C-alpha cells in the first residue's frame, strides 16, 4: 500500500481562529475572555505562533460557534456587508433537502440566497450558477457578489476557505466526495500555493475571470441521499463537518472506487470498463494502478463484499438469506461458498462465533 499523505485532515490554520476572534473583537467583545471561557489548549494570539500552525478543527469549531452565537451571524466569519441571521443556513438546507439531484439542489440554493439578498435591499445576483460544457465537465460559478465582492479587501484565503466549505457540503448531500477537475480563482497566486491545492484537492488557476469549480458533470446527476432527519443531525454538528476533511475525502484509488460502487451491492457491480470511465482513466491504467496496491478488480469486488457481509452479519435482526440478497448473490448457497472462501467460516459459523464471544465478554451475574 502507498503511504498516507503527510497532510493532516482534521485541522485548520491558526490564522482562521485569529480571524474569527478578530471579528468578535471588532464588535466589542474581549477575545482574551472568550478564549479563557472556551478552555482552549493554546492561545491563538500567541505572538510566537506561526499563523499557518495547524490547530485541531474541533477547537476552531468551538471558537466559531461562540462567535456566531455572540454576533447572531451565520456568515462563517466572512464579515460581510450585513450579518446573515441565525437560522439562514438551516432554512436553505430545508429548502433543498428534498431536491432530486445535486444540480436541482444547487439551483434552488442559488434562488434561496438570491431571495435573501433581495429582501435585505442588496443588488440581485444570477440564480443560474451551473453550466454544462458538453465535454463531460461542468462549471459551478460562485456568485461571489453576495459573499465576497461586497468586501474586496477579503483575501484569497477567505475565498478558498468558503469554496472548500461549499464543496464539503455538496459532497455530504450526495454521500460522495466530489473530486474536482480544477478550481479557478480571481485572486493572484500566493507564494506557496500548496495549501490551496491540498484543501481543494485539485489544480488551482489564478487571475481568472470568476471563482469557480470545474467538476465531472455526473456529480450533478447524483441523487441527494439524506432526509430531514439526517439533516437535523448534520446541522447539530455543523460547522465541524464543513471545516474538516473526512474519510469521504480520501482520494486514494480504492476509496474512490468504493464511493462509485456505493452501499447498495444488490445491484450489479460496474464493469471494469465502466469503473475506468468513472475514474477518467483507461482500463489499462486502472489495472496498472490496482497492481500498485497488490490487488485486482475482482479482488477489490470480493473484499468489498466481504466488508459489507461482515457488517451485516453483525446485525442479528438480518437473516442470512437477507444478507445474501443485499450482497447481490442470486442464490444463498453461492454466498455461503464465497463467505467461507473469504473467512474460513460459513455465515452461520461466523454468527455463532460472534455470539459466543459476546457471551464470554459479558459480566457474570451476581
Number of contiguous helices: 16
**Helix-strand makeup class:** alpha+beta
Q: What order do the helices and strands follow?
A: EHHEHHHEEHEHEEHHHHHHHHH
Averaged pLDDT: 77
Terminal CA distance reads 49 Å
Main sheet characteristics: 5 strands, mixed
The proportion of residues in beta strands is 5-15%
Poorly predicted ranges = 1-9, 76-80, 145-154, 360-366
- Strand arrangement in the largest pleated sheet: 3-4-7-5-6
Shape: globular
Helix content: 40-55%
Strand element count: 7
Our count of domains comes out at 2
What Rg do the Cα atoms give?
24 Å
List the helices and strands and how they pair.
Blueprint: E1 11-13, H1 14-26, H2 31-38, E2 54-56, H3 57-71, H4 88-96, H5 102-119, E3 130-132, E4 137-141, H6 156-174, E5 182-184, H7 194-200, E6 203-205, E7 212-216, H8 228-237, H9 240-243, H10 253-261, H11 272-278, H12 283-292, H13 297-313, H14 320-326, H15 332-343, H16 347-361
Parallel strand pairs: 5-6
Antiparallel strand pairs: 1-2, 3-4, 4-7, 5-7
Helix pairs in contact: 1-3, 4-5, 14-15
Keywords: Coiled coil, DNA-binding, Transcription, Transcription regulation
Region (Disordered): 345-366
Pfam family, one: Arabinose_bd
Amino acid at each position: 500500500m502507498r503511504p498516507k499523505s503527510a497532510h493532516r485532515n482534521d485541522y485548520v490554520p491558526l490564522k482562521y481562529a485569529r480571524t474569527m476572534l478578530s471579528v468578535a473583537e471588532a464588535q466589542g467583545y474581549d477575545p482574551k475572555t472568550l478564549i479563557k471561557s472556551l478552555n482552549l489548549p493554546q492561545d491563538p494570539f500567541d505572538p510566537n505562533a506561526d499563523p499557518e500552525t495547524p490547530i485541531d478543527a474541533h477547537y476552531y469549531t468551538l471558537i466559531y460557534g461562540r462567535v456566531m452565537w455572540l454576533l447572531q451571524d451565520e456568515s462563517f466569519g466572512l464579515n460581510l456587508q450585513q450579518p446573515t441571521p441565525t437560522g439562514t443556513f438551516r432554512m436553505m438546507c430545508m429548502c433543498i433537502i428534498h431536491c432530486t439531484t445535486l444540480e436541482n439542489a444547487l439551483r434552488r440554493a442559488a434562488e434561496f440566497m438570491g431571495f435573501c439578498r433581495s429582501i435585505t435591499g442588496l443588488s440581485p445576483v444570477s440564480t443560474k450558477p451551473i453550466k454544462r460544457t458538453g465535454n463531460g465537465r461542468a462549471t459551478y460559478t460562485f456568485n461571489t457578489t453576495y459573499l465576497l465582492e461586497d468586501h474586496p479587501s477579503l483575501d484569497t484565503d477567505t475565498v478558498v476557505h468558503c469554496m472548500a466549505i461549499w464543496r464539503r457540503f455538496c459532497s455530504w448531500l450526495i454521500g460522495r466526495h466530489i473530486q474536482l477537475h480544477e478550481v479557478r480563482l480571481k485572486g493572484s497566486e500566493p507564494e506557496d500555493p500548496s495549501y490551496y491545492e491540498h484543501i481543494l484537492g485539485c489544480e488551482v488557476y489564478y487571475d481568472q475571470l470568476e471563482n469557480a469549480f470545474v467538476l465531472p458533470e455526473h456529480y450533478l446527476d447524483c441523487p441527494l441521499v439524506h432526509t430531514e432527519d439526517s439533516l437535523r443531525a448534520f446541522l447539530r454538528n455543523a460547522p465541524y463537518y464543513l471545516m474538516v476533511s473526512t474519510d469521504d475525502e480520501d482520494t486514494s484509488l480504492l476509496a474512490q472506487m468504493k464511493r462509485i460502487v456505493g452501499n447498495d451491492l444488490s445491484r450489479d457491480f460496474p464493469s471494469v470498463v465502466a469503473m475506468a470511465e468513472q475514474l477518467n482513466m483507461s482500463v489499462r491504467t486502472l489495472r496498472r494502478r490496482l497492481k500498485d496496491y497488490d490487488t485486482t478488480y475482482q479482488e477489490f469486488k470480493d473484499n468489498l463484499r466481504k466488508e459489507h457481509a461482515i457488517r451485516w452479519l453483525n446485525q442479528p435482526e438480518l437473516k442470512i438469506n437477507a444478507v445474501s440478497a443485499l450482497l447481490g448473490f442470486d442464490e444463498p448457497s453461492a454466498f455461503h461458498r464465497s463467505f467461507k472462501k473469504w473467512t474460513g467460516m460459513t455465515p452461520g459459523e461466523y454468527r455463532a462465533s460472534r455470539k459466543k464471544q459476546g457471551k464470554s465478554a459479558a459480566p457474570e451475574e451476581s
